[in-house]
Amino acid sequence: MAAESVYAAALCAGAAAWLTVGRERGLRRARLLLAGGGAVEMAPWWSRTRLLPVVRLRPEWLCFPAGLVLAVLGESVLPLVAGAVAVPLMRRRLRARERRREQERRAEGVITLCGAVAGELRAGLQPGQALLFAARSTRALGGAEAAVLAAARFGGDVPEVLREASRGPGADGLAGVAACWRVAVDSGAGLAAGLDRLEAALRADRDQRQDLRSQLSGAWSTISLLALLPVAGLAMGWALGAAPLRVLLHSPAGLVCLVIGGLLEVAGLCWAARIVRGGEEA
């Protein structure tokens, strides 16, 4: 009976996924028709160009087939439910990681912008022209690029626009660029020299963060290894013929141990991750 319920749940999940893919295909076809004004030939759903982006852009959906495999092996619906619950949690974690990477790319772009503007100033360009050329070549301003370029081209308040742009994630260095620009405009000080010092300071701060991250990589490796120990224990029990999944999923004592062990595992991971992130933030 348990196996039949698992197979039924898997069949329902597959039907839902098929309907979702069909709905996305219809939406994409409608967008293409409205955008181009005519029919556009669509690639088949099984083509390489259609399947690879799904796998590449949505790795969190791999939690669902993993739960399905455990559900079939353990003849229980609980792993399937756990895999479905893990999908949004994994998506949130992956999006947070992508945001951190975007912040690092933005910070690196600001450093490149400082060096590019200083180089253009030494080449003889005016500050506004140097900022226009450097911003277009480095793409470090992100969504605020249009406002900054408009201020630089039409004589607007460039420092104020740069200060507003510095509020974006990873763009803290633009506040330093705005300060250097303000000082150069008010007192006539050399903008190129100020940007050089700012670039050196931002590079030193970036190198310090990278060094700290490399030192903490061992701690993250230890956390990952400790997190995989329960899985290794289950694999060893399975190899010895003890059927650990059946004990955990089909007995009251096993379910209690599974719940308590899962809570302790999550609490330990959160605690260790908080300690390591505290070191990174400091």
Automatic annotation (TrEMBL):
Residues 116-236 form the Type II secretion system protein GspF domain. The chain crosses the membrane at residues 6-23, 67-90, 219-241, 253-276. It is found in: Cell membrane. Pfam families: T2SSF. Keywords: Cell membrane, Membrane, Transmembrane, Transmembrane helix. It is a multi-pass membrane protein. Coiled coil: none annotated. One of its GO terms (cellular component) is plasma membrane. InterPro entries: T2SS_GspF_dom (IPR018076). Its main location: membrane. This is Type II secretion system protein GspF domain-containing protein. It comes from Streptomyces lunaelactis.
